[in-house]
């Protein structure tokens, strides 16, 4: 999981939240928005879990969205 940033032609910032399957290098999900707070990240993970099931582990950096209480609570609740 990782984030990327870009900007639209008018200068507004744009963010993407990218979920990759390390083994196959499949791009599982891309969420795009002007803001992607931890709440949105967790919502994307819940949706993905309902569609494909949850992984046993997730590789992340120590970004603020992944260090949030909401993300930690989701991971603990789902044993990820």
Can you give the helix content as a percent range? 25-40%
Order of the strands making up the biggest sheet: 1-2-3
Which structural category fits the helices and strands?
A: alpha+beta
Give the overall silhouette: globular
Question: How big is the Rg?
Answer: 13 Å
DSSP E strands, number? 3
How many helices in DSSP terms?
2
**What value does the average pLDDT take?**
88
Distance between the termini: 13 Å
How is the main sheet built? 3 strands, antiparallel
Give the percentage of residues in beta strands: 25-35%
Element order: H for helix, E for strand: EEEHH
Stretches where pLDDT is under 50 for at least 5 consecutive residues are none
Give an overview of the whole structure:
The protein is of the alpha+beta class and 80 residues long. Helices cover 30% and strands 29% of the residues. It contains two helices and three strands, in the order βββαα. The longest helix is centred in the middle third of the chain and has 15 residues. The chain is globular, with a radius of gyration of 13 Å.
């Amino acid at each position: 999981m990782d984030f990327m940033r870009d900007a639209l032609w008018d200068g507004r910032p744009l963010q993407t939240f990218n979920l990759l399957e390390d083994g196959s290098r499949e791009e599982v999900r891309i969420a795009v928005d002007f803001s992607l707070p931890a709440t949105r990240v967790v919502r994307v993970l819940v949706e993905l879990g309902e569609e494909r099931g949850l992984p046993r582990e997730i590789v992340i950096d120590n970004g603020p969205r992944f260090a949030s209480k909401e993300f930690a609570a989701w991971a603990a609740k789902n044993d990820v």
